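assembly run, all chains below
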Amino acid sequence: MNQAKLGKTDMLNLFKKMLLVRAFEEKAGELFQQNLIPGFIHLSIGQEASSVGTCSVIRPNDYVASTHRGHGHMIAKGADPKRMFAEILGKSTGYCKGKGGSMHIADFSLGFLGANGVVGGGFPIAVGAGLSIKLRRTDQIAIVFFGDGAANRGTFHEALNMAAIWKLPVIFVCENNQYASTTSISYSLAGGSIAGRACAYGIPGYTANGNDVLEVREIVGRAVLRARSGEGPSIVENKTYRYRGHFEGDPQKYRSPQEIDGFKKEQDPIAVFEIRLKTAKVLTDSAAKKMRKDVAQIIEDAVHYAREAPLPQPEDAMEDLFVNP
Amino acid sequence: MRVMSYREAVIEALREEMTRDGNVFLMGEDVGRMGGVFQATAGLWETFGPSRVFDTPISEVAIVGAALGAALVGLRPVAEIMFVDFTGVAMDQIANQVAKFHFMTGGQAIVPLVIRTQGGVGFGDAAQHSQSLEAWHTHIPGLKVVMPSTPSDAKGLLKTSIRDDNPIIFIEHKLLYQTEGPIPEGDYLVPIGKADIKKEGKDVTIITWSKMVLDSLEAASLLEEEGIHAEVVDLRTLNPLDLDTIIFSVKKTGRAVIVHEACKTGGFGAEIAALIVEKAFDYLDAPIQRIAGIDTPIPYAAPLYRAVIPNPDKIAQAVRGLL
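ok done. output:
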């Protein structure tokens, strides 16, 4: 989708994708409560404008390196919720045959180079994808999503420097949800701005209202244009907020329920966009209702598929250690 | 047969594989115009140009991680980490990313990546530039660990490693670069996971790898003068391990001495000793001996560093004690 040509259908697709991400995450939270998920999960509820907005301005053959909070990125890149739920439930028909789970879920056929269990682990991988693009002389780009906490990892700086000196087509998309695990950025982030760190590397650092899907599109779109035209990397800092804890089950002693409610009431990315679409007469109440029903059905079908899917066999643990062992 | 140094053999392997496959490229600190601090990539920048042989910033994490990223999307990087000691800097990428991607994605991701590095005691490089850290890497499932001792093996194994679709830690030794040996003509490969009996013997099996193969051969020739016939098994690769060759030899000789430069505690020799006990206990006529580095950092001064690592005399002494 091109920003200039964003038509009614495109707008509605963005909205529907955001609904899908949220419904997926809410359902994942429910399944966790029901003890159906073997490991721990990190949900991105509240951050849908960033994942959906960013992935809406890139092409199917572009690369995305994601994070531990990556379900939204993967859905936005076009992954199948059935196989995602199957993976998260540890089933053999999941994306990684039950070997990865939420933190290592990947779909290489979509250029989705994986969630990552190590904060900041994806930066160098995206730089490598960018390096391959440059060496192969294609016009692809690579996106690396990261949280505010990852901006304090050494990989961030090594990767930024490398991408900048080689002018690689890599976009560093920060989802600044204000908490690194349970630690506020007001405590942990020197300088106060992640986008601001770009100036040290001589590259653009953009800040976007990460709860406004159209603004995310516009800002990331600028970085994409720059990357595709060979001018090099950028940082985009989407300022957003997560409604759930760092992980499901996080007691969240570091913030008040009032703070969370304030964001939900005033800045919810889905509510904000819905009002805008309705005001512009792009979306009606009944169309919104139908869309929510459709999304709920997709999620219900996906969960049904995943719950019915077979568990892996114990001997499967011995496979996939090496190629052609 | 031509005679070539280990260093030249490494360069020739890289040159041949880069010529054969346009997806192979080299990256690392000072590997380009300078040709590497040990000159093990000398001349390749001139031949293949800066788009296939390039210097990186001093960023070991990003070197390994970027090589991984490039491998994941179809290229075949050979990344150099200047000293094996610095793999510690890059260990998150090596242990948590490179080694696990194929497995944790259920086989989707393919990682045809070679990390070339070198280790061992040289001439006073001291504690942060002299270690033998192969046991770190053998302890991570998903990595192959290759440690050739001769120019011929270095060339053949490096070529095989570059063609392998799995991540490989290829550990050279700084004192081996100048050693010379015969190199077969033409395009030959040495299989990964196959040990080589560098000297046959009936009285005792010396199991070793990398530079300690040379020291063990020297010890074996001292022993030969005394009428003791030692067999020297060069493992060449630690993972996968050629256990069959080890066990076959130990069953023949009834005595096993394991020699490595790395410090003894937690060293790979302990693994081999355990495997011999599991597989050939009834064939042993004497306790297994491990001749290894002493558990200290590597000191700077020559009398000190010589004191903490094995040498031919120490190896020969250990063998005599078994007979």
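Residues 6-20 of chain B form the longest helix (15 residues).

The radius of gyration of chain B is 19 Å.

not gonna interpret more than that til we talk
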